[in-house]
């Protein structure tokens, strides 16, 4: 088992912020820290460049699909022209039921955040 990896200070990861740490996008969704693998299941955008929507979901910076950061599942498929493709939204939501984003716990100790427990 590897040692927990330092993310930064809790003060630096304010609600709505997302950063990249290794192969994870680490963020603060309405006060809840999360870490999910950072490659979007659609076309591979870096989710560390995404943002948090009003529901606490991680939104992809390219085509604005949205992920539940607790389960790693897509809850809204790619938007824009992709949203006009029949069945695509359903397909990606089902795909990420089988292949959700990987997740890792984020722990806070003495004001510092770490990936892993
Ligand atoms: S690459 Fe993420 S929605 Fe297209």
TrEMBL record:
This is Nitrite reductase/ring-hydroxylating ferredoxin subunit. GO terms for molecular function: 2 iron, 2 sulfur cluster binding; metal ion binding; monooxygenase activity; oxidoreductase activity, acting on paired donors, with incorporation or reduction of molecular oxygen. Keywords: 2Fe-2S, Iron, Iron-sulfur, Metal-binding. Its cofactor is [2Fe-2S] cluster. Belongs to the bacterial ring-hydroxylating dioxygenase ferredoxin component family. CDD domains: Rieske. Coiled coil: none annotated. SUPFAM superfamilies: ISP domain. It comes from Asanoa ferruginea. Residues 5-115 form the Rieske domain. Pfam families: Rieske (PF00355).
């Amino acid at each position: 088992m590897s040692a927990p990896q330092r993310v930064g200070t809790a003060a630096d990861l304010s609600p709505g912020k997302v950063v990249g740490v290794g192969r994870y996008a680490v963020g603060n969704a309405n006060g809840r820290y999360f870490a999910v693998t950072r490659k979007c299941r659609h076309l591979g955008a870096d989710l560390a460049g995404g943002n948090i929507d009003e529901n606490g979901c991680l939104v992809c910076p390219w085509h604005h699909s949205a992920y539940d950061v607790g389960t790693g599942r897509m809850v809204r498929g790619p938007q824009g022209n992709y949203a006009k493709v029949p069945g695509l939204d359903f397909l990606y939501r089902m795909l990420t039921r089988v292949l959700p984003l990987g997740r890792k716990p984020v722990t806070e100790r003495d004001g510092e955040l770490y990936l892993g427990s």
